[in-house]
Amino acid sequence: MSDQVKKIDDGGPAFARASAEHSMGGNYEQDGMSLRDWFASQADIPWNAVIETLSIKGIEMPTVKQMAEYRALMKYAEADAMIAARKGGAA
C-alpha cells in the first residue's frame, strides 16, 4: 500500500468569488463549499433505496446511523461521478 493518500478531486469552489472581493474588507479567507460538496448535497438518494440496499447486504434492521452513513457514501459517489463527467471521463 502506498504511503501517499490519493487527494479527492473536489471540483473547486462551488460558489467562486471574483478576486476583487478580497479587497473589499471582510473575511474572505475561506472559499466555502466545494463543488463536490454541492453535488453531494443535491444528489437524490431515496431513503427506501438505502434501506433496500442495506437489506441486500445482510443488514435487515439498519440503525439510523448506518442508513445515514451509507446514504452519505452514495451521495459522494454520485458527486465524484458528476465531477468526472464534467471532465469527460465518466465511466
Structural class: mainly alpha
Q: Summarize the main sheet.
A: none
Helix content: 40-55%
Straight-line N-to-C gap = 25 Å
Q: Overall 3D geometry? A: elongated
Give a description of the structure.
- This protein is an all-alpha fold and 91 residues long.
- It has a domain at 29-86.
- Helix content is 45%, strand content 0%.
- The model has no long low-confidence stretch (mean pLDDT 82).
List the main descriptive attributes of the protein structure presented here.
mainly alpha; 91 residues; 45% helix; 3 helices
Short summary:
By secondary structure, this protein is an all-alpha fold. It has helices at 35-42, 47-56, 64-86.
Task: List the SSEs and their pairings.
Blueprint: H1 35-42, H2 47-56, H3 64-86
Helix pairs in contact: 1-3
